[in-house]
Backbone:
């Protein structure tokens, strides 16, 4: 797995696995595909957050488990580990960040900023997962951890705010 192949919106939309892995095409953005992938997760979160917490949790868990296969398959098809356009991991990471988020317009914005911060910064152990794990697990795990870090900060911020 070597050179990053060029992927177009049209090619992504023709392949159901790539369509999901590339965040319904958001990962084909020419700059900051991870940020655009996270943005694509926001309207889906707006639907998911209406569900009871147990259903929200189950859906996010299934999305994470399926994401291991989905991201691994897309990377295998493209013959490159963790193509920048594969953003399903960012989407699930954001949904983890927003688990049990309080009501208010600023929480999704704070969650977005915190998730992107941890996803880009990659403090330990996120950096270890990013550098040493391959395949779908490697693609997903660093973003799942970034989501957990951001979730922790979100919950602390809420605790301090009330």
Residues:
């Amino acid at each position: 797995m070597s050179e990053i192949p060029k992927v177009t919106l049209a090619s992504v939309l023709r392949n159901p696995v790539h369509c999901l892995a590339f965040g319904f095409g958001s990962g084909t953005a020419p700059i900051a595909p991870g940020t655009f992938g996270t943005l694509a997760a926001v309207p889906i979160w707006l639907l998911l957050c209406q569900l009871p917490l147990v259903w929200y949790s189950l859906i996010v868990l299934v999305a994470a488990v399926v994401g291991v296969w989905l991201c691994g398959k897309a990377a295998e098809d493209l013959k490159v580990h963790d193509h920048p356009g594969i953003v399903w991991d960012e989407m699930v990471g954001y949904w983890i960040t927003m688990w049990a988020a309080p009501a208010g317009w600023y929480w999704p914005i704070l969650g977005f900023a915190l998730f992107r911060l941890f996803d880009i910064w990659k403090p330990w152990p996120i950096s270890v997962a990013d550098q040493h794990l391959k395949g779908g697990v490697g693609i997903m795990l660093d973003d799942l951890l970034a989501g957990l870090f951001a979730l922790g900060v979100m919950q602390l911020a809420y605790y301090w705010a009330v």
